[in-house]
Specification:
With 536 residues, the chain is an alpha/beta fold. The protein is built from 16 helices and 15 strands. The chain has helices at residues 61-79, 95-103, 108-125, 141-153, 193-204, 263-273, 287-300, 332-336, 341-349, 361-385, 391-395, 404-411, 416-439, 443-462, 481-503, 507-519, and strands at 26-29, 34-37, 45-50, 83-88, 157-161, 167-173, 234-238, 258-259, 279-283, 308-312, 315-317, 320-321, 357-358, 522-527, 530-535. Strands 4-3-9-10 form a 4-stranded parallel beta sheet, sandwiched between helices. A 4-stranded antiparallel beta sheet has the order 5-6-7-8, covered by helices on one side. Helix 2 (95-103) packs across helix 3, helix 9 crosses helix 10 (361-385) and helix 15 (481-503) packs antiparallel against helix 16. The radius of gyration is 27 Å and the shape is elongated.
Length: 536
């Protein structure tokens, strides 16, 4: 494979020592079914691999929930002072992409690239940090072939041959040869394993992009082949369908074909994170069969699997899991056409990653109310202290400098609900301090207001929600900073006219200006240092 140069990291906070709070981090592990202390394999560094999108069509809210969930995990690791290598793959070839491209008269790779860019736009708009590395499956075919050869040599996979003894392009993992199969999802080997595995699949529900009737491998038609030795065996490599284009086939020692569903993640996580890494993440629907199969093939190759597996729960709509297969997916572009990106991000990230998230008008209404509380406090506090702290100051705040209730919540398996409660507790205290500033200017009180403001913004930044950070800065009203600047100039002119009227004791005119602004949704706040405004 050759040596791989470690990529440069993309951090939200400046370089600083590991926080003392890092010792208190506890995370859930799907394989152990337990919350346990997090200890990185390499001190001071965390390697995370998260399964990314199969870029067949537009992203929906169910996809992006997982991206936001693991973005928050990553941001907390950074705030704790860890150096984080974050890998998120792109599946740019599979049956769905090939079939949908053919039906639409497209080149499969053109369709994949189009929707990959659409996913990237959605990630960017919702404040998801770009990954350290974002590898595509088609860019790592040699890695996959080498991995499959290792598994075959180790006696845990078999090549299907034709009547003349020639390889057909189909290679299957031999589940019966691997006694550890089922350790992630706690299935048992034995005489009734087929029924048990089917029950597990039924219990967990369909994959987000499920197609076909095979309970073990609901996306890969090749896995329904009669050439399998065991119903549980799954494709590592598969012969092309007659309809597959010529540029979607690769020649290998085991025949012409293309990757099975699971092999790419084992190959790419190993390439960029090595034989052992800290966290493997993904949506709950990927536990079985994708991650179960991935764990088995990785370990059967002689490598270590991830030290910890973390899964974000589903988004539900009216109690039903949101997915394309169920027909109730909400596309991200459609949602963002009706709601600001900050509000959507808050709604997606407002509950702990393992909790189901009910998507409804009420969810978005609550998120909008949260934005108004947050932005109102930040605007008022900034005005009271004569300006906002810089982004550099906010990102330099380490975990040990944040309120204890926030730190305790985040260290409790990323309990975002508790963390958000800590944010609003600090806002509540800050508002009390602001009322004292309005009564009489006091340097000590102003210093405490500033401290509360820095804490609130740093906590929000850890959740990807500091309104004065990219991509939110200037985007509260649909992302048009020019419009926001123009509105500020117009309102400021009216405030100056109101101040002049009050100075001339023309209180009727001053009240009329205030009433006109109030009628269009602008609230005026009079303070000893002058008047400020905010949207109601």
């Amino acid at each position: 494979m050759g040596n791989v140069e470690e990529p440069q990291n993309s951090n939200i906070s400046g370089a600083h020592e590991l926080a003392g709070a890092a010792a208190g981090l506890n995370l859930y592990d799907t394989a152990s079914h337990a919350v346990s202390p997090f200890r990185p394999i390499r001190p001071g560094h965390v390697g995370i691999y998260v399964c990314g999108a199969t870029v067949q069509s537009s992203p929906h809210i169910g996809h992006i929930r997982a991206a936001v969930a693991f973005d928050i995990v990553r941001r907390w690791m950074l705030r704790l002072g860890y150096d984080v290598t974050f890998v998120r793959n792109v599946t740019d070839i599979d049956d769905k992409i090939l079939d949908k491209a053919a039906a639409a008269g497209q080149q499969w790779w053109a369709r994949a690239y189009y929707y990959e860019r659409e996913f990237t736009r959605a990630y960017d708009m919702l404040g998801v940090l770009p990954p350290t590395v974002e590898p595509r499956a088609t860019g790592h075919i040699p890695d996959m072939v080498e991995l499959i050869e290792r598994i075959i040599r180790n006696g845990h996979a078999y090549v299907v041959k034709d009547a003349d003894g020639n390889p057909t392009g189909n290679v299957y993992f031999d589940v019966a040869s691997w006694p550890h199969y089922g350790e992630l999802t706690h299935q048992k080997q034995g005489a009734v394993e087929a029924d048990e595995a089917a029950e597990v699949a039924d219990r967990m529900g369909p994959s987000v992009d499920a197609a076909g009737n095979d309970k073990y491998n609901p996306i890969d038609p090749a896995d329904a082949s009669p050439d399998k030795h065991d119903p549980r065996d799954f494709a590592l490599w598969k012969a092309p369908k007659a309809t597959d284009p010529q540029d979607a086939r690769w020649a290998t020692p085991f025949g012409v074909g293309r990757p099975g569903w699971h092999i790419e993640c084992s190959a790419m996580s190993h390439r960029y994170l090595g034989e052992a890494f800290d966290i493997h993440g993904g949506g709950l629907d990927l536990r079985f069969p994708h991650h179960e199969n991935e764990m088995a093939q990785t370990r059967a190759a002689g490598w270590n699997s991830a030290a910890r597996w973390m899964h974000s729960a589903w988004v539900t709509a009216k109690g039903e899991k949101m997915s394309k297969s169920l027909g109730n997916g909400l596309s991200v572009p459609a949602v963002l056409a009706e709601h600001t990106a900050w509000v959507v991000r808050y709604a997606l990230g407002s509950v702990q990653y393992r909790s189901m998230l009910e998507w409804s008008d009420q969810t978005l209404t609550e998120a909008q109310a949260a934005f108004e509380r947050v932005s109102n406090f930040i605007e008022r506090a900034g005005a009271a202290i004569g300006g906002q702290p810089s982004r550099e100051e906010i990102t330099a705040v380490g975990a040990d400098q944040l309120p204890a209730d926030f730190v305790n919540a985040m260290n409790d398996d990323i309990n975002v609900s508790g963390a958000i409660a800590a944010v609003f507790n600090t806002i509540r205290s800050g508002n009390t301090l602001l009322s004292q500033v309005e009564d009489h200017a006091d340097d000590v009180v102003q210093a405490r207001v500033r401290e509360a403001l820095v804490s609130v913004r740093a906590m929000l930044d850890t959740l990807g929600l500091d309104p004065l950070a990219e991509p939110w800065a200037g985007a509260e009203d649909g992302g048009d900073s020019k419009a926001a600047d123009a509105l500020d100039a117009l309102v400021s002119e009216q405030l100056q006219a109101r101040q002049a009227a009050r100075a001339a004791k023309d209180f009727a005119k001053a009240d009329a200006i205030r009433d006109v602004l109030a009628a269009v949704g602008i609230a005026i706040e009079d303070t000893p240092s002058g008047s400020t405004w905010s949207l109601k």
